[in-house]
């Protein structure tokens, strides 16, 4: 999925979680910056009109609630990336020799997912107050090794399940359309 030719591989189970980890960390930092802004800006705003202060406080509270809804978006993003990987993996196909590379990539995906989990755990410990707003994201990132394993298994399964007639049809369509 991360490659230019729009074909997925088992490497997506290693590379896409990097993207997911960076989004999770960005969400934590952005929410931390926002809550720090709200905390520091609210006392300044109390020096103005009382009605304006109430409106400002209510608006800032609503925006904070809206931003915390990003937590509910996170599983859909992970699932969407998985589905895109599976669709592109179907276009790829693989030979039996690739099965050995696939097993190696499964092991690498598990090792790297433990690294991603540890990085996120250390990152979340620095933002403990933010973690309460992003419980779903934290749960997914702390179980990323299982997600990566399922990801690698599904992509491998899709890549190896085509039969010879499907391969011949795909090769014929590639000749016709010049791909």
Measure the end-to-end span: 17 Å
Q: Quick one: how many beta strands?
A: 0
| Poorly predicted segments | none
- Main beta-sheet annotation: none
Which shape, going by the Cα principal axes? elongated
Question: What's the number of helices?
Answer: 8
Which band does the percent of strand residues land in?
Answer: under 5%
Pattern of helices and strands: HHHHHHHH
In percent, how helical is the residue content?
over 70%
Mean pLDDT score: 79
User: What is the SS-derived class?
Assistant: mainly alpha
Tally of domains: 1
Backbone CA Rg: 22 Å
What does this structure look like?
The protein is mainly α and 179 residues long. The chain has one domain (12-177). The chain is built from eight helices and no strands. α3 runs parallel beside α6 (135-142) and α4 packs antiparallel against α7 (144-160). The longest helix is centred in the first third of the chain and has 34 residues, at 12-45.
Topology:
Layout: H1 12-45, H2 50-68, H3 70-92, H4 98-126, H5 128-131, H6 135-142, H7 144-160, H8 164-177
Which characteristics define this entry?
179 residues, mainly alpha, 83% helix
In short:
By secondary structure, the protein is an all-alpha fold. The chain is 83% helix and 0% strand. The chain has one domain (12-177).
């Amino acid at each position: 999925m991360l490659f230019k030719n729009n074909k997925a591989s088992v490497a997506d189970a290693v590379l896409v979680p990097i993207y997911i980890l960076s989004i999770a960390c960005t969400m934590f930092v952005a929410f931390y910056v926002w809550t720090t802004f709200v905390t520091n800006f609210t006392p300044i705003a109390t020096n103005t009109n009382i009605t304006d202060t109430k409106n400002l406080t209510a608006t800032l509270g609503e925006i904070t609630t809206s931003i915390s809804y990003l937590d509910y978006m996170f599983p859909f993003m992970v699932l969407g990336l998985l589905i895109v990987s599976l669709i592109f993996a179907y276009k790829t196909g693989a030979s039996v020799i690739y099965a050995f590379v696939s097993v190696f990539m499964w092991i690498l995906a598990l090792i790297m997912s433990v690294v991603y989990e540890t990085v996120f755990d250390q990152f979340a410990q620095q933002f403990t107050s933010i973690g309460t707003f992003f419980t779903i994201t934290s749960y997914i990132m702390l179980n990323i090794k299982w997600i990566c394993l399922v990801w690698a298994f599904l992509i491998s399964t899709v890549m190896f399940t085509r039969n010879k007639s499907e391969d011949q049809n795909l090769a014929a369509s590639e000749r016709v359309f010049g791909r």
